[in-house]
Automatic annotation (TrEMBL):
PROSITE patterns registered for this protein in UniProt: SPOIVB
Listed NCBIfam families: spore_IV_B
Protein name: Stage IV sporulation protein B
Residue ranges of the TM segments: 12-28
Residues annotated as domain Peptidase S55: 187-422
One Pfam family of this chain: PDZ_2
Protein keywords: Membrane, Transmembrane, Transmembrane helix
InterPro entries per UniProt: PDZ, PDZ_sf, Peptidase_S1_PA, Peptidase_S55, SpoIVB
Amino acid sequence: MEDDKRVKKRSVLLIISLLFCTFLQLLVELPRIHQIQIGQMEPDLKGIWSSIIKVEKISSNPTVSVSSGMSTSPVSEKLEVAYKLFGIFPLRSAEVEVMNPIKLVPGGQSIGVTLQTKGVMVVGQAPVVDKDGKSCFPAKEAGIQVGDILLKIENQEVKTDQEVSNAINLAGKEKGTAKVLFKHEEQTIEKVVQPIFCSETGRYRMGLFVRDEAAGVGTLSFVDPVSKLYGALGHVITDADTNQKIEVYNGKVIASTIYAIEKGKRGHPGEKIGSFIPNSVFSGTIEKNTITGIFGRMSGQIENPYFKEAIPVGWETEIKVGPAKIYTVIQGEKIEEFEVNIDRVMHNRTDSKNMIIRVTDPRLLEATGGIIQGMSGSPIVQNGKLIGAVTHVFVNDSQRGYGVFIQNMLNDSNQLTKKEAA
């Protein structure tokens, strides 16, 4: 009899201990920062916990609004809430951001991108041979480095490589020196350069290779069907030689066609090989070049056969490890749907590497080997919501790569802007 009592007592204690441990684990897992849709107020809890843990609003702060250019003009509100056991005993406080829904049309179209820099970028240095046969580096000696942006020569703005060449030649002829205003990292600096007369070209030169534009092929990520605001690429455009971010002066996107695929393999990312379509059915401006992509306004005919209407945006906290789909072009101009898996979600990153995605679709693996250059910007859809875009491939594993949260793209595009309450 006594043995039965001891067994029952141990069993009760064990059950209580298990319940206590489960409760502690739940307490640890309750989110401190959470995003929910309007109309949803309960935490994402399972089973009995959803009925015994209540959420109580402490304070609100309508700090986030969406620019008037968006079709839905949504507003979000930050709430301070408390999780309470049985609605009485406080467990933890948290910040909840209540999001109005945004709807966008997923892209997938192959686009050609041309971009003119703000100023002229220095991409290399070359010796100038003077009349005595001596190799000189006038610009380098004055402190101008690869990656710097030339802004003005003799107080005149320069926007093309030809303008730089002509201004230096003229200043060399007239004065023997040239005042050069340039941007070095975040500083604007003015230096005096002494151009050298080059006997080979018959012109005064300062010994620089410069570039005023960039071009390439990528993928459209999304378009707002009313405002025509778009996002593409999912990552910043950098100069091929310097790896520096290109400051945009002017640029455009148009349709492109893919006529070949260089398949990716270990240590060598593949790429789409395409060409611009002269009579493009759509075109767009490039107004911003950011860490999460390029943004501007689109005109013309934009169609995705898989989405006749805009679909909801999936916020960061809605993204789950598991199956998803991407939309991209691998032949001609036809958008196709492919299966991928989200292997990992990295909530603390604010760059363009927020998810690790893995291609699982046999057709795409056969055609491309996985993720390839030119696929950047391909929209990622999970559970009927647009959650992000493909950005980078793993060099040593072309089946895997990174994706950016659509939320981060919206933030960088200024479609989400924080404003203090009036």
